[in-house]
Amino acid sequence: MNHPINILERYWTFTSFRPLQEDIINSVLEGEDTFALLPTGGGKSVCFQVPALVKEGICIVISPLIALMKDQVQALQNKGIKAMALTSGISYKELDTRLDNCIYGNYKFLYLSPERLQQDIVQDRIRQMNVNLIAVDEAHCISQWGNDFRPSYNNIIKLRQLQPTVNIIALTATATPNVVDDIIRALDFINPKVFKQSFLRPNLAYMTFAEDDKRFRLKAILTKNKASSIVYVRNRKATQDISNFLENSGFTATYYHGGLSNTEKDKAIESWMNNQKQVMVATNAFGMGIDKPDVKTVIHLNLPESLESYFQEAGRAGRDGNKAYAVILKNKSDDLLVENQFLKVLPNVDFIKLVYRKLSSYFQVPYGEGQEQTFDFNFNKFCKTYGFNTLLAYNAILLLDRTSIITLSKQFNNRTTVLFTVTNNALFSYLETHPDISIIVKSILRTYGGAFEQETKINTTLMAEKANTNEDKIIKVLTRLEKAEIITLKYSKTDAQITYLMPREDDKTINRISKVIKQQNALKQKQVLSVLEYSNNNDICKSVQLLSYFEETEISDCGVCSVCITRKPSKKLDSGAIKKEIIQALEHGELTSRALFKQLPFSEENINAQLRELLEHNIISVTDTNTYKLAHI
């Protein structure tokens, strides 16, 4: 019963492995250090979970993503497998108890972040565990040349000392050969077994279209492909805007971003996974650990930040092996936007030193102190206090988090929420007798229209700016309204927490990571330029461009991407037939070119060509509202 295929059938109900999975599992069971490079959807987790279940003992899984850890632990627990994660926010006593359970409680999986390996108590208990395997997930984070490098991943090598006889499996979905070599060296692999699955996805058509009106093209794509889809957008506000636009256009859509509460996230995911909603509109926070095989289209309304992330996000389409589409819609302004979003907000060493010093002043941390102290953090107030550009400051704080100077824990589920519990008329009657708060209340109502129907999260900093006052005044007004039973109010002073991982030493602290900062900035510039080159290159097959980026050599044109389809000889269309159908359509009334594109079974190029001829021969004319009509009507 402990044969890998039996484990697979028992817990996953599959009767066969995907390509390379069985070879990887056998390598792990033979005690070999193993590297698995499997593209998104290749089933990486099975490669360490199955052999860990075959063998006696517990598997230690290192992962940088708390959300992914929680998802995998929950999935294992749902299968009746004992698993736990050591996430942030647990007390020392609870940590002590959980580690004891790993030694004596027959647990099969322990998930933890690389930062946890710095704690003496964690190291001491790992020595006592019966460890059967060490799995390093998202292993590209260990490489200085990898997408999302985290120096804390260098702590993983300590596991070699704590459990010297245990083999390691490293797994990632995107890595160039340089990154693979770096990972193998950093983990001290000896004669590793390396398994690489080609990045080729023959069923996935990569498309890039220049489109001034992206929303119109988005509707056309989703109308043509009436199946499960993901639409990636640049920011949180856009997720809700595009989701509402699609709903108002007759589609079923929901949205996802990192600022939603866990309940809201779960509700959105469930409705999309169960196909109650066709479209998930999301930021790049969505997708990790989500395995939905029937996604037909993945559409990027904005350029991604790297080809590594694009390949992962696009790869969520067509996991069932059926024809699928990965589409980028871009216009003339996108190149400049991506440079502004990703390149012009890269913090240099001096700026990071400044942000770090100001953080310490903000929290009143004395020099040489602060280690393991946690502070509530209002990011907007911090930026306003010191006059920081929010994007630049946020990237600086993220870099401090990634390099293990601090940890940033986002607590977006605890923001200020308001629900008006009186009628519109009753509210305005109240404001007539309390004119001093009228501007603030009206600013809230004009910004958050749904506050009469449901609890609505509000940005108190934004409200202060709109009402030309300060944030404290906004809170006092909301508290007054709550006491007057005009609203129900849930208020939190913070949207995040920051924990110092080392004592404050100002410039000395940052000097230790200055090389990493410069290197990461150079890597980000290279990645963004690669995205721009990919999106603008309409001469080389899109699949070939992607495979070449990951340094695959045995490649040929895919035949289905946006470049390849333009090379195929088009069928000779009867221009007379196209003209006839245009005329028949216009006999029912005036139509825009878009309406004709949507209504007729011909390409935009062919329809436009015949419209020009019909105009030249005065068979049709253009109205003042830019619609077409028959000339004799």
Form type: globular
Indicate the low-confidence ranges by residue numbers: none
Record the strand order, biggest sheet.
3-4-2-5-6-1-7
CATH architecture of the largest domain: 3-Layer(aba) Sandwich
CATH topology of the largest domain: Rossmann fold
Q: In total, how many domains does the architecture comprise?
A: 5
Fraction in beta strands: 5-15%
Using only C-alpha atoms, the radius of gyration works out to 28 Å
Task: Describe the structure using short key phrases.
633 residues, Rossmann fold, Arc Repressor Mutant, subunit A, six-stranded parallel β-sheet, 44% helix, globular
In short:
The protein has 633 residues and is α/β, with parallel strands linked by helices. The chain has 5 domains: 4-196, Rossmann fold, CATH 3.40.50.300; 204-331 and 537-564, P-loop containing nucleotide triphosphate hydrolases (Rossmann fold), CATH 3.40.50; 341-413 and 496-524, Orthogonal Bundle (Arc Repressor Mutant, subunit A); 416-490; 575-630, Orthogonal Bundle (Arc Repressor Mutant, subunit A).
What does this structure look like?
It is a single chain. The protein is an alpha/beta fold and 633 residues long. It has five domains: 193 residues, P-loop containing nucleotide triphosphate hydrolases (Rossmann fold); 156 residues, Rossmann fold; 102 residues, Arc Repressor Mutant, subunit A (Orthogonal Bundle); 75 residues; 56 residues, Arc Repressor Mutant, subunit A. A seven-stranded parallel sheet has the order 3-4-2-5-6-1-7, sandwiched between helices. It is globular. The mean pLDDT is 88.
